[in-house]
Design brief:
alpha/beta, 249 residues, 10 strands, seven-stranded mixed beta sheet, Rossmann fold
């Protein structure tokens, strides 16, 4: 495994292939979870959809942790019914949550049966029920995805939600990527986490990774803006995804 430190706030791990990425990121998640449980008796995590869901569903169930101490939120969610193929919660419920002993009450899906603005407010209340009525929730870990345009969560380049500073969870009704209605954690919550983790595999991610990790674009792409104020930022990449990075050879 090669370690590439591109900045003091970034820990970029380049691994041989997607299989090794899956193995290492799942081990890192469990290590972080067990340390949080030992320290604070709970592990708060936000998960994302896409290829990350398969990585976690394949790798986590075989590892040892106290699942009763996990509190699972979603970094963003498409505002669609649970039986819609686009529903991230249902993907996790079928492929991960069905394999591990975690109670339904400790998993927090979006409510697709109310208007999206109300759903964002309701999700904020779910966060408050776990974190308390604090200035900002402090997640132990946010597992983030990145799209080919550099978006993360449902925070898209050039969208007004990039500048949201008051809400913990925001609604979006004009997503440039379908479906148009979603809810998403906002940047104040993301930047307050103890650890943010990106996972990217495959040569199709090489160009956008170069822009995010080594570019100096203004304004910065959403994924490039993720820099926890006092927490860690980790990237797990395979060699094809990292192929255009100058800092990796």
């Amino acid at each position: 495994m090669s370690h590439v430190n591109m900045a003091a706030t970034k820990n970029v791990r380049v691994l041989s292939d997607a299989g090794e990425v899956s193995e290492k990121v799942c081990a890192f998640i469990i290590e972080t979870a067990n340390a949080a449980i030992a320290d604070r008796a709970v592990f708060t995590v936000g998960v994302s959809g896409g290829s990350l869901a398969k990585i976690l569903s394949d790798g986590l169930p075989a590892l040892k942790t106290d699942w009763s101490k996990w509190r699972v939120f979603f970094c963003d969610e498409r505002h669609v019914p649970f039986d819609d193929p686009e529903c991230t919660y249902s993907v996790y419920k079928k492929n991960l949550l069905s394999k591990v002993p975690i109670q339904d009450e400790y998993v927090f899906p979006d409510n697709p049966n109310i208007p999206v603005e109300e759903a964002a407010e309701a999700y904020t209340q779910k966060l408050e029920a776990v974190f308390g009525k604090v200035g900002l929730p402090k997640f132990d870990m946010l597992l983030l995805g990145m799209g080919p345009d550099g978006h993360t969560c449902s925070l898209f380049p050039g969208h007004p939600l990039l500048n949201e500073t008051k809400k913990w969870v925001a609604a979006i009704s004009d997503s440039p990527k379908p479906p148009p209605q979603r809810i998403t954690l906002t940047f104040p919550v993301i930047q307050n986490c103890r650890c943010a983790v990106f996972v990217s595999c495959g040569s199709s991610k090489a160009e956008i990774l170069k822009r995010v990790l080594e570019g100096n674009e203004e304004p910065a792409l959403p994924a490039a803006r993720v820099r926890p104020h006092t927490g860690a930022l980790c990237w797990f990449l395979d060699k094809p995804a990292a192929s255009l990075l100058k800092s990796y050879s």
